[in-house]
Write a structure and sequence with these properties.
mainly alpha, 2 helices, 73% helix
Amino acid sequence: MPLCATSSSTLRRFDKSLLSAAHLCLQQNLEANRQTTAESENQFQAWRASWNERTENLALRLTRIDSRLVALSDARPSRPVLSLVGSTPSGADADDCSAAF
């Protein structure tokens, strides 16, 4: 430790004031950290609630889509609605038409 021209009582007061300042700084940082943690927790809870709501809405929409698809598959006719029917031109032989396609 370097030699000082001040008295030992001045050094003690100086040391105590540094210790007090460090303690005060730590207390302020601790309080700021607690406040930031609480704000972060609140934001996380709000995000989680929003996420849960969106997940439930999505699940409901998917359930509705599935029920509509089931209803559409049950309502499907037993025979096709649109059919392709081939015919031969008048006066042409069936073999001639098949060669044209």
